[in-house]
Structures are given as C-alpha cells and as structure tokens.
Amino acid sequence: MPYLLMFVTLLHLITLAMLFIATMEKSWWVWDGMENSDLWYNCRFDNATGSWLCSSSKETEWLQAVQVLMVLAVVFSSVSFLVFLGQLFTMSKGGLFYFTGLCQVFAGLTSFCAALIYTLRNREILPDSKDLTSGHFGYCFILAWVCVPLLLFSGIIYVHLRKRE
Known about the structure:
Elements: H1 2-24, E1 29-31, E2 35-37, E3 41-46, E4 51-56, H2 61-90, H3 98-120, H4 122-125, E5 135-137, H5 139-160
Antiparallel strand pairs: 1-2, 1-5, 2-3, 3-4
Helix pairs in contact: 1-2, 1-5, 2-3, 3-5
C-alpha cells in the first residue's frame, strides 16, 4: 500500500507539472522552427537580434475556450493535490479519496476538451496570415494529450485508494 501511495503521489506531481508546462509554454503550433504559436502569444525568432519577438494571440472564442479549459485543468489538479494532502492527515482509517479522484477526473476531462477543441478548430485559432500546411503541432499540444489518460487514470486510482495507517 505505501508503494501505491507513493506511485499515485508521484504520478500526480508529474501530471501537474506537465499540465502547467503545456498551459504556459509557447509551442502548441510550430512553423519551421522559427515561428510558433501557443495559447497566449504568437512568436517568431529574429535572427538579427537573436531573440524571440512575441505578440498577443488574436482573441477568438475558440482560443478563449482552450485557454479557460487548460487553466481549469491546472486548477482542478492543484486543488486535488492539496485536498489529497489534507485528507492524508485528517481522514479516518479506511476512508476513500473520492473528492481527490473527482477533481483529477475533472482535470482530465477539461484537458481533453481543450486539446480536442484545439485539434478541431486550429484553423480558426491560429493567425490568418500563416499557411497551416507548413506547420505542425508542438510539444505542448502533445503534452496536453498525454496528460488526459494520466489524469483519468490517477483519478480512478484515487477513487479506489483507501487510507491505511
């Protein structure tokens, strides 16, 4: 049982870090390595100065939906971890971590919805002036998709996990 508890705690922390990176980093869509777009900014690399020049993303309804859902996923997963830590010290022996598991499942579902919307509506989300055939999904987008089964799996484990002494 202690190994399962350490495993689920480690899985939760890894998934939370991946969610945070997927939400905040700037690589949801990449064009030729010199230009990319994320949930917040469109950036291009300037060879003359050797730095990234970024401008705010065009606010569309679909982009705002993805932004809100990814932030909600981070919030649900963070609340879930804090509640889990609190339950470890206050819950009586034999109790189940229902609320923690439910928050993790909600985080997984909101991350799923955000990644699905970005997948299906990337033509409306990305800048109009760029040809999407010359670009591809970036690592943050892939991280968001990887988080979905991990969050759902950890949520299910939390629901079935009983507190022992």
